[in-house]
Amino acid sequence: MIIAPSILAADFAKLGEEAKRAEDAGADHLHIDIMDGHFVKNLTLGPRTVAAMKRSCSLFLDVHLMIYTPYDYVEQFVESGADQITFHFEATEDVMETIDFIHRCGIKAGLAFCPETSESMMVKYIDKVDNLLLMTVNPGYGGQKFIPEVLDKVRFVRALSEKVVIQVDGGINLETANEAVKAGANALVAGSYLYHHANMKQAILELRGLGR
Questions:
Q1: What radius of gyration, in Å, describes the C-alpha atoms of the chain?
Q2: Which are the catalytic amino acids?
Q3: What superfamily would CATH give domain 2-208?
Q4: Collapsing DSSP states into helix, strand and coil, what is residue 93?
């Protein structure tokens, strides 16, 4: 079980410390949301923030691009220290070209899907990516309510592949994570639940124990 706290829910006044706090609490990855104000209406972070996170902790940096034309930004995020770049199927017509380019840069590639996107669109990419991210909220803002209908898509993908990493992101807490894990997810992105928890380490341990 891969546990990835989302830095979007952290205290932006001390991002470096918040990244280290996730590492000290036992996280596997640090999830970094990049939003361009176009693909989604929110604006967040950029390559310099990823570079700062790289200096602040030794966690695997899971960079989630919620931006149009992601191909154009791959090199910047690779140079900044990304260990995995996940981009949205809905944000580009150059899906395979972008996956291949990320792999040629020597890091892992992930593909994300919005809740309304049909699972039929996922089939051809399952064995092409290292991570399939199924959004369990509409992308753009943290703190939204989990969309349970996405669990059917998780089950669909898991039935097709035992190997692919299925990541869920949005509205994740102990209850919704348990549902997602039962459906076949094996990577959990949690923002508010972890960063606002009184004991992040305990919360991570509880999430990691799901499905055992």
A1: 16
A2: 33, 169
A3: Aldolase class I (3.20.20.70)
A4: coil
